[in-house]
Amino acid sequence: SARPPAAAAAGQAAEPAHAQESLELATVETDVAPNVSSRTELPSSPVGRGPGGAKKPTKFEVSPDISKLSDEDLSYVAELEVVKPGVGSILFHGLTDCRGLDIDSLVHLDIGEVLVYPDQALKPPLGQGLNKRATVTMYQCWPPNGRAHLEDAASRERYRGKIQVMTEEKNARFIDYDCCTGVWKFQVEHF
Fold first, then answer.
1. DSSP readout, the chain?
2. Average confidence score pLDDT of the chain
3. Looking at residue 4, what is its pLDDT?
């Protein structure tokens, strides 16, 4: 699962980091980043495809709406985005072959947690399926002890810096963390 500051490494959930200003935000599990895992839950789309390609309701919003695509169009979906409103999103860059993908079982996205391929046995080779470069945006990523200590500019900048260091230690590329909105954005090369 992905927990912002306290993230998990390939297949393992990360324990929250406790410092004076704790960085327990979200954990992301991946082979690349200890807190960016191959387990990522995303916002939901109304319909996904289950075993055998049958359409079924999903817990995520998926764009484009893969439930409306032909098998041919499913084979090359550009910039696939999986979103869980109020929680976060994952934008999978490039073309993705969505034929046979059951996004609900491959992606897990909750507050402070993002997992892609929770079952490592289902994880395809690098660059295939959802095991590819992606930008993750997590909402509601607040310090465990609350936002009160982030009221002045110096505290916000110090905390943002800690989030950046934690993200980079997990082999993810830090894009931004907004102390006022609790939105954390980073990129991984693969899950």
1. --BSSS---TTSPPPPP-STT---SBEEE-SSBTTB-S-----EEEEEE-GGG-EEEEEEEEES-GGGS-HHHHTTEEEEEEEETTTEEEEEEEEE--TT--HHHHEEEETTEEEE-SSGGGPPSTTSTT-S-EEEEESS---TT-SGGG-SHHHHHHHHHHHHHHHHHTT-EEEEEETTTTEEEEEES--
2. 77
3. 39
